[in-house]
Amino acid sequence: MAQQGIRCVKIKKGDQVVVIAGRDNGKRGRVLEVEPRRGRVKVEGVAIVKKHQRANPSANRGGGIIDREAFINISNVQLIDPQSGAPTRVRYEVEGDGSKRRTAAKSGQSLEK
User: Fold this and answer.
1) Residues 6 or more apart from 53 whose CB is under 8 A from it?
2) Which of 38, 42, 63, 107 maximizes the CB count within 10 A of its CB?
3) What is the per-residue pLDDT for 5?
4) 33 and 43 fall within a common domain
């Protein structure tokens, strides 16, 4: 069995993505967290689950049932093309100085901020 290393993840924290599969299909949001080893992402407003939380007076936190985002599989999201607003795949382009930058596969628009 091969050792499982860190996968190459083309989606980064802060990217705007659209969900393309699952119960939240079609929802758009910002990536809050990425776990490359598990191949999962957490998207704002997507995969909301209820968590029963015990009160913790030392941390000044009240108890109750809170809503929070759960991780979803990275294959169920696609980046949003900045030019058209449609879902797109990511392509890497190598600059003349050897640096890489992410671009939208559909329009060729740069995805770097």
Assistant:
1) 61, 63, 64, 65, 66
2) 42
3) 64
4) yes
Question: Do residues 76 and 91 share a domain?
Answer: no
* Average pLDDT score over residue span 3-18: 84
Torsions phi, psi for 39 (to 5 deg): 70, 40
CATH code of 64's domain = 2.30.30.30
Rounded-to-integer distance, Cα 82 and Cα 110, Å: 8
Task: Report which of 11, 52, 5 is spatially closest to residue 33, judged by C-alpha positions.
Answer: 11
pLDDT at 2 over 60: no
Q: What span, in angstroms and rounded, lies between the C-alpha atoms of 15 and 27?
A: 14
User: How open is the CA angle 46-50-52, to the nearest 5 degrees?
Assistant: 150
Residue 11 lies in a domain: no
Parent domain of 91: 82-113
Reported pTM: 0.83
DSSP, res 81: P
Residue 37 vs residues 1, 40, 59: alpha-carbon distances, Å: 16, 8, 30
